[in-house]
Design goal:
This protein has about 120 residues and is mainly β. It is about 0% helix and about 55% strand.
């Protein structure tokens, strides 16, 4: 059974940094696409960044220049480095891995709170 496990959320002051990680368990097949989403309280889910195999990441305007995605296709892991965090970045963050025929899988979500 394929599972995605996230880690790395927490509480950080405005201007601080956090790194989220996501790892695939249950298969060694490389995934085609990795996405990070977030959902703030009372708001709709937002796509933060997406990257396909061999492609360049596409970031939401709200995080461009502050967030950086990285992935290790061989290890089936991905991370989201978040710098210059703002209170409006507070949300539950989810990773999503997509495979052409395995389907798509979601992490369990990790809370990021930016507050002084």
């Amino acid at each position: 059974q394929v599972q995605l496990v996230e880690s790395g959320g927490g509480l950080v002051q405005p201007g601080g940094s956090l790194k989220l990680s996501c790892a695939v368990y249950g298969t060694s097949l490389p995934f085609d696409r990795v996405e990070w989403y977030r959902r703030a309280l009372g708001k709709q889910r937002e796509l933060v960044v997406a990257v396909g195999s061999g492609g360049s990441p596409n970031y939401a305007d709200s995080v461009t220049g502050r967030f950086t995605i990285s992935r290790d296709t061989g290890k089936n892991t991905a991370s989201l480095r978040m710098d210059s965090l703002k209170p409006e970045d507070t949300a539950v963050y989810y990773c999503r891995f997509i495979h052409a025929w395995l389907g798509d899988y979601w992490g369990q979500g990790t809370q990021v709170t930016v507050s002084s």
